[in-house]
């Protein structure tokens, strides 16, 4: 039953990514954390992230802006190392509590966010650094780049441009963390085996997601994902806090 649950969770996570270009880590991280350690979930999702982000970045390569990708990637990398050290040293119970709060906070931000009429706003350098470094810490801990998602969504003009830039940034993060996880011992044989077993779910989820994206309103899917994230984040926090 646990294997079936993990397979379905992975399929849904990458179905979400196929539609939006992100969200796989939030969905997979929250659902997996009920039955699997974060130290296993994060490297498994990383192994899936490299090929899927490569595919989506290549698909939208004409819409990628180096002015967005390069500075955000540098700030992201600066935060990944301390985030990875926290992942290696932290208590799993504490990590799950933090993850629950982070998931709910990000979901609420997505729910209450108002679309901006002014695109490509110039943010301050300090704001850019804060967003990038915090995103890096979250990426090192859980692989989550949702703060970057919020930032890039405000600095791109359309869905294709957003996907191209965010997946390109995530790919830089994925490659860096792959070698960092190898060096720190977080990327284990167990993670490799689990990734291999669940890879069909990733392929199926991506194929379905890409097809549904052309026929379904993105706002409907977005609200469903937000509802799932809020519910799972709250349950995860309460379960970990009182256990």
Return the structural class.
Answer: mainly alpha
Which stretches are poorly predicted, pLDDT < 50 over at least 5 residues?
A: 117-121
> How many domains is the backbone divided into?
1
- The SSE string, one letter per element, is HHHHHHHHHH
Q: What characterizes the major β-sheet?
A: none
What percentage of residues falls in helices of 4 or more residues?
over 70%
From the spread of the alpha carbons, the general shape counts as: globular
Estimate what percentage of residues fall within beta strands.
Answer: under 5%
Pfam families: TauE
Protein name: Probable membrane transporter protein
Family: Belongs to the 4-toluene sulfonate uptake permease (TSUP) (TC 2.A.102) family.
Main location: membrane
What's the topology here?
Elements: H1 2-20, H2 24-32, H3 38-59, H4 66-89, H5 92-112, H6 125-142, H7 146-155, H8 159-184, H9 189-213, H10 218-241
InterPro entries: TM_pro_TauE-like (IPR002781), TSUP (IPR052017)
Organism: Clostridium beijerinckii
Membrane topology: Multi-pass membrane protein
């Amino acid at each position: 039953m646990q294997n079936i649950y993990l397979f379905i969770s992975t399929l849904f996570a990458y179905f979400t990514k196929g539609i939006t270009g992100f969200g796989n880590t939030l969905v997979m991280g929250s659902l997996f954390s009920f039955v699997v350690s974060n130290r296993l979930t994060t490297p498994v999702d990383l192994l899936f992230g490299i090929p899927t982000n490569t595919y989506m970045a290549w698909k939208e390569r004409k819409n990628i802006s180096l002015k967005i990708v390069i500075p955000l990637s540098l700030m992201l990398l600066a935060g990944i190392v301390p985030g990875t050290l926290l992942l290696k040293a932290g208590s799993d119970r504490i990590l799950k509590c933090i993850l629950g709060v982070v998931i709910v906070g990000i979901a609420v931000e997505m729910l209450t966010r108002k679309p901006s009429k002014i695109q490509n706003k110039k943010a301050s350098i300090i704001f850019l650094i804060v967003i990038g470094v915090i995103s890096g810490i979250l990426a090192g801990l859980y692989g989550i780049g949702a703060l970057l998602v919020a930032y890039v969504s405000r600095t791109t003009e359309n869905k294709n441009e957003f996907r191209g830039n965010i997946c390109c940034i995530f790919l830089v993060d994925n490659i860096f963390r792959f070698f960092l996880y190898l060096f720190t011992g977080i990327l284990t044989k167990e993670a490799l085996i689990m990734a291999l077993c669940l890879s069909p779910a990733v392929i199926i989820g991506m194929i379905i997601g890409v097809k549904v994206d052309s026929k379904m309103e993105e706002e409907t899917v977005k609200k469903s994902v937000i509802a799932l994230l809020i519910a799972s984040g709250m349950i995860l926090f309460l379960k970990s806090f009182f256990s």
